[in-house]
């Protein structure tokens, strides 16, 4: 699973809990995109979450 190159956000794990309270494993995937960004002036492809893109922490190439 990919992680955000800026904040390190990745997948989170937990349980599905049914009405009868039986539990099964589940996974929440964060919204991560492959984006061309400027790193030291050169364009490079990074995995970045959409919250970092929206907040302007990344300068797109």
UniProtKB/TrEMBL annotation:
Gene3D superfamilies xref list? Ribosomal protein L28/L24
Q: Which InterPro entries does the record cross-reference, listed alphabetically? A: Bacterial_rp_bL28, Ribosomal_bL28, Ribosomal_bL28/bL31-like_sf, Ribosomal_bL28_bact-type, Ribosomal_bL28_sf
Cellular component terms per the entry's GO annotation: ribosome
Pfam families xref list: Ribosomal_L28
The answer to whether UniProt assigns keyword Ribonucleoprotein to this entry is yes
Q: Which UniProt keywords apply?
A: Ribonucleoprotein, Ribosomal protein
Taxonomically, the superkingdom here is: Bacteria
Keyword Ribosomal protein, does the record have it?
yes
Say which family it is in.
Answer: Belongs to the bacterial ribosomal protein bL28 family.
Put simply, this protein is called: Large ribosomal subunit protein bL28
Q: Which gene encodes it?
A: rpmB
